[in-house]
Each structure stands twice: as structure tokens, then as C-alpha cells.
Design goal:
The complex is a heterodimer of chains A (about 110) and B (about 140). Chain A is of the alpha/beta class and about 110 residues long. Chain A is about 45% helix and about 20% strand. In chain A, helix 1 packs parallel to helix 2 (about 55-70). The longest helix of chain A has 16 residues, at about 25-40. Chain B is an alpha+beta fold and about 140 residues long. Chain B has four helices and five strands, in the order βαααββαββ. Classes of the chains: A alpha/beta (about 110), B alpha+beta (about 140).
């Protein structure tokens, strides 16, 4: 006798940041996150593996995005910056303990 | 003889992108070769303080066309001294957020500066704001 089974597809969007995530770029990131959530996708990965500079405004955009995603039942997770200059701001503020972070998007997806 | 480097910036976010290349170029010119390997640390601190000036020393009416100056030199102790001067609104320390474990949305800028600089000083004189960062040699 076969048992009833169900399957669910979970949609996860990834936003990739190349170069700088600074005060100027943070405005664009906030808009991109807002639009993604409005479209109904509340699971987001922001890939910073190729970022070379992140400031507090970039961090704030990520933190607000995480709060909004979690408020909608999802999450915003972060692929860690490989460049130590971009990773520095996470360590200084201890936000590396606040975000769920990994070295690849695949690792983050696997644990969702 | 002490050599001082000067950078005048417009009070907008785009102009902040000139800070890194300026530091890279001028650190050796002012005799701070021994600190050249720490330029990325200096950039983050100087950038954060400059963005703080853009955000808080000017409002929507005064920001357009406003500029501020950043100078740097190497002192007798071989430390890097970076001075900021703007003629904007006085800094109000009451605006400074309490930084804790909860993810505060904005306001980590000065906290980051404090983590990176050996000292940070502020003074208000003659209708201008004077900030000084020192990075130990």
C-alpha cells in the first residue's frame, strides 16, 4: 500500500554583489530586497564572495533585509566575503554571529 | 618637515569612493610607508566617519553643494593623524546608538571607527566640526 506523499518547491533568490557594498550601493540593495519580498520571495541569499568592500550602510541594508524576510516567514542569508577587507566589518560589529553565513550559496541552500 | 595631504570631498555618497585611492596614493607621500599595509583598515574608518558627516552634518537643504576637508599627516610618534573639518550642523552625541547584540539597523559607523582607530576626538569651534582620528604606528 502506498502512502500519500507531497513535495514542496522552495524558491530562493540570490543577489550577488561584485566590488563595493557601500553607502551608495546599499540604496540599490535595499530596493532589490524590497522588490523581491514584494514579489513573494522571502528566502534570499546575498552573495558577497566577490565583494571587496562593505561598510556599515551595506551592513544595515542586509540587516533590514534579514528582519523583513524573517518577518514574512523567510530569511536572508549571506555568502561570506572572501576578501578580508570586505569581511572586516562583520567581525568588528559581530554581525558574523547574527547572519546565517557560509562559504557558498550551495551550503546555505542545503541547510534551508 | 611634516607633509600633509588634503582631500576635499563633496557631501555625497559617490564622492566617498575617492577616499581609498587617496589614502593608497598619499600614505607613502606623507612618510607613512610603515603603515602602507594597513590602508584598507584606514579606508574603512575614514570612510565611515566621512559618511557620518554626510548623513548628520548636513540636511537636505545644506547638503547640495556642501564640501568638507580631510587632511592627514604622520606625527612624531609615526602615527597616522587624519583630520576632518566641516561647517555643518554640530555633532550631537545623543544620536550615537547603543551597540549591542541585537541587530540595530543603522548607526554602526562610529562604533566601527572606534574599533579601528587608536583615538577619536571631536570638537566644535567657530561654527565648524573638527574630528581627529589617530592610528598608532
Amino acid at each position: 500500500m502506498s502512502l500519500p506523499t507531497s513535495s514542496f518547491d522552495i524558491r530562493i533568490n540570490t543577489i550577488t554583489i561584485d566590488g563595493r557594498l557601500d553607502a551608495m550601493r546599499a540604496v540599490d540593495l535595499r530596493e532589490e530586497i524590497d522588490e523581491t519580498i514584494e514579489s513573494g520571495v522571502v528566502r534570499l541569499i546575498v552573495d558577497l564572495s566577490r565583494a571587496d568592500f562593505v561598510d556599515s550602510a551595506g551592513l544595515a541594508a542586509l540587516a533590514k533585509g534579514m528582519k523583513d524576510c524573517r518577518g514574512a516567514g523567510g530569511d536572508l542569508r549571506v555568502v561570506a566575503a572572501q576578501n578580508p577587507d570586505a569581511a572586516r566589518v562583520f567581525q568588528l560589529t559581530r554581525f558574523d554571529q547574527v547572519f546565517r553565513m557560509a562559504d557558498s550559496a550551495e551550503d546555505l541552500v542545503a541547510t534551508w | 618637515m611634516m607633509t600633509t595631504a588634503l582631500l576635499t570631498l563633496k557631501a555625497d555618497y559617490e564622492s566617498m569612493r575617492a577616499i581609498g585611492p587617496w589614502l593608497e596614493e598619499q600614505v607613502q607621500a606623507i612618510g607613512a610607508d610603515h603603515l602602507a599595509g594597513r590602508v584598507s583598515e584606514f579606508e574603512l574608518a575614514v570612510h565611515e566617519l566621512a559618511v557620518n558627516i554626510v548623513d548628520h552634518a548636513f540636511d537636505d537643504e545644506t547638503r547640495a553643494g556642501a564640501t568638507f576637508d580631510i587632511t592627514m599627516h604622520c606625527n612624531d610618534d609615526k602615527a597616522l593623524v587624519v583630520n576632518f573639518v566641516d561647517r555643518g550642523i554640530a555633532y550631537d552625541s545623543a544620536d550615537k546608538p547603543v551597540v549591542g547584540d541585537e541587530p540595530t539597523i543603522r548607526g554602526y559607523g562610529l562604533f566601527i571607527v572606534e574599533q579601528l582607530a587608536t583615538s577619536i576626538d571631536y570638537a566644535r569651534r567657530d561654527d565648524a566640526n573638527y574630528w581627529t582620528l589617530v592610528f598608532g604606528g
